[in-house]
């Protein structure tokens, strides 16, 4: 199978996941829970949540989407390789990992090393599961899936690799998702005189992503069922 065919299918599910996360995201909860939640800036933004979603939240989620797609490149390089170990690609994979880049500065020592190994293990597993598909003769994604895996294994792979929240659920306090909001960029006009607001949205990211998973994963599993029934 061509590498691009694998990328397109993953990109489709990732796009659906980001769309569902955006739809579930409660920006008001983030502002109310921020350290500046009672400030003039936060209050002004609370009254204009839709522009904030469009001009700040959506671009942030899209940047994460692109980062995940960028990370897929070295994972696919590993999947295609026949004479290289995963360690060859580990630094490149980790540099593009949204969780590693969101690791709190307070996470150090053995815990930092343990998280690093867990993140790399997830991506190594992804590459191992993609390798048979990349090597398959068929250029149709689902034909290749049914040729390479039985139904139970395919379902398990979908479950494992579309559960994007696993690292955050396993090490909730280790990561921080943060956003700097410029009221002038969001609202324009007199808001340009307002200072920027730094907010952390880790809790809301987890909640909205979990909700997105509950939509995307069952739909993907239905695709698996259809592939094996056709």
Characteristics of this structure?
two-stranded antiparallel ribbon; mainly alpha; 230 residues; single chain; 3% strand
In words, what does this structure look like?
With 230 residues, this protein is mainly α. It has one domain. The protein is 72% helix and 3% strand. The protein has twelve helices and two strands, in the order ααααααααααβαβα. A two-stranded antiparallel ribbon has the order 1-2. The longest helix has 32 residues.
Number of helices: 12
Secondary-structure element order, as H and E? Answer: HHHHHHHHHHEHEH
Please tell me the total number of domains: 1
The main sheet orders its strands as 1-2
Give the percentage of residues in beta strands. under 5%
Distance between the termini: 20 Å
What overall geometry do the principal axes of the alpha carbons give?
Answer: globular
Helical percentage: over 70%
For the secondary structure, the number of strands is 2
Broad structural category: mainly alpha
Return residue spans where pLDDT drops below 50 for at least 5 consecutive residues: none
Q: Using only CA atoms, what is the Rg? A: 20 Å
- Mean pLDDT level: 91
Question: Secondary-structure blueprint of this entry?
Answer:
Elements: H1 3-24, H2 27-33, H3 40-46, H4 49-80, H5 87-95, H6 98-101, H7 109-135, H8 141-148, H9 151-162, H10 166-170, E1 178-181, H11 183-187, E2 197-200, H12 202-229
Antiparallel strand pairs: 1-2
Helix pairs in contact: 1-4, 1-12, 2-3, 4-5, 4-7, 9-12
Brief characterization of the structure:
The protein is mainly α and 230 residues long. The protein is built from twelve helices and two strands.
